[in-house]
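Narrative of activities, Objective 1.

The group set out to show that a structural description can be obtained from nothing but a protein's sequence at a throughput compatible with the screening campaign. Below is one input-output pair from the validation batch, recorded exactly as produced.
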Amino acid sequence: MSRLVFLYDLDSTITKQELLPTVAKELGIYDKMVELTEKTMKGTIPFKESFLQRVEMLKAVPVSQVREIMGNISLNEKLVEFIGKNKDRSYIITGNLDVWIEDLLKRIGMERNVFCSKAFVENDMLEDVISVVDKNAVISQMVLPFVAVGDGNNDAEMIEAAEVGIGYGGVREVAPSVHTCATHVVYDEDTLVNFLKKLA
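Output recorded for this entry:
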């Protein structure tokens, strides 16, 4: 087998919390954000449509404030350590905006190895979303076989296309669509990292 590449979702895979609901909780708009996030995770609403709605909810908040909240979010530290040791072939694929996750990516040490959505900012305010990442377009660029780790409906096609597709349920329930196509489903961080070490 060729050397494997590792692809990771960010929310509830590398992080111990969903990013946008955590930000929304700090800002007092938690319930509406969670409702949209849950529908997206389950595939009730297409990711792009839901994401743009959620971005709209946070548009009035300074980008620096959102970035600071996200930058302090809890991480699955053992997974982050594994990623750090295999950085040359690890990539994060997330729908979150580049301008929001900048500090978080620096903490993880993955600011260069990321595919994410892009936005235009002026005077610390979000002006427009330039692009929303398409995970399927990203995986179509992969030449080497890959391992994919994620939990939500928008990770399902990435996991299905992987040589080894892992549904990770250590933080939240794995989406039914991921259960259907994953080669493995793992429920705690130690098991996940030990398995990834065997693949590395």
